[in-house]
Amino acid sequence: MAEDRQVEVAKGVFFSAWTYNGTVPGPVIRATEDDLLRVTFANAGSHPHTIHFHGIHPSNMDGVFETVEPGASYTYEFPARPYGMQLYHCHSTPLKKHIAKGLYGAFIIDPPKLRKPAQELVMVLTGFDTDGDGENNFYGVNGPAFYFAKYPIRVRRSQTVRIYLANLTEFDPINSFHLHGDFFRYYPTGSSDYFEYTDTVMLCQGQRGIIEIDFANTGRFMFHAHQSEFTELGWMGFFEVID
Ligand code: CU
Ligand code: CU
Question: Which residues surround ligand 2, an ion (CB under 5 A)?
Fold first, then answer.
């Protein structure tokens, strides 16, 4: 459901967001490849919205032409494909505004033969323009600035950490993910076995992929955007790796 909502984006700073189900990012949608996905979308917000999914589906399920007016609803129904890390966002115009206001989320499609067990996380990269000047004032992962600096993510060295990563930041042409103290496998879109072995990935808006980390050491390791400005404005956090 789309609704207008004040969300806290940094300590004591509230942002007039347009949300899916009351949060920015919206809920994670997860399916297995070829599952029939059915999403009933009700617009309880103040503007026309849609849900545009990335992936393979018919034109009338693409969330571009069938605009859902305030008070109306629409049902999206199609088989989920291809497997990988997909995403969804509103595609009403002006598109820039509808994304910057917070209408987006992660859409994970698992392969028919499931990936090996891992410690799984979703990270959606966000930016918030709180003063309306067309530039972001705060950056974050899954929402508020500095959240995972305040609450480090505890993981085990003995098990792979799998991150479903997507960049939905508006206004800035690129964002990135950089890990300290280790390297990881990065599968762009997660839709094939191809991967890059690196410690930094760059993503434009809408780019996403799957990261797999096998930590070699225990201790506290930072992860952050490799744009220093984004880091200082909230996009950084820590892993606490334990045995
Ligand atoms: Cu919208
Ligand atoms: Cu898109």
Answer: 206
Ligand whose nearest atom lies closest to the CA of 96: 1
DSSP 14: E
**Do you know the residue count of the chain?**
243
Quote the ligand 2 centre to 86 CA distance (angstroms). Answer: 9
Q: What percent of the chain has pLDDT over 90?
A: 100
Distance of CA 90 from the midpoint of ligand 1 (Å): 5
What pLDDT score does 120 carry? 98
Cis link prior to 25 (omega < 30° from 0)? yes
Q: What is the tally of helices (H) and strands (E) in the chain?
A: 3, 19
